[in-house]
Amino acid sequence: MDGETVINVAHEQAMQYPSVELDYPFGPDSAVYKVRGKMFMMAFELRGTPSLNLKIDPLDGEVLRDAYPEISPGYHMNKKHWITVAGEGDASSRNGDEAVVTGDRLDADLLHDLVLESYCLVVAKMSKKDRPVDPETFGGRGDD
């Protein structure tokens, strides 16, 4: 999936969620998506590649980083709790804060799940009275 598609798909999805606001606190090139004032996604360009930062469960993040070349530790974020998802790029290795992409294996379903997970992880940390949704069931979560 190319970088512009990653950004567009994630944006369309995130803007459908309850209580989501789009902000640009770091300037016009970094779109920050917040739920009730708490960031769950950021869209930006990293070395010419459209990219996203998303919150993730640490164990899931480790598995995803190992399985998908499009997913790396969160750029300028806590590497344990955030990942960077990038579209296609021409870099071929990972190095520290660099979000590096070597393949085209990321699909819309996985991206959908990652955006939903990020949103729900942030909502789950809110007090119950402040939650716009139940993070355990929102978006079909908890259905087996």
UniProtKB/TrEMBL annotation:
Gene3D superfamilies: 3.90.1150.30. It holds the Pfam family YjbR. This is MmcQ-like protein.
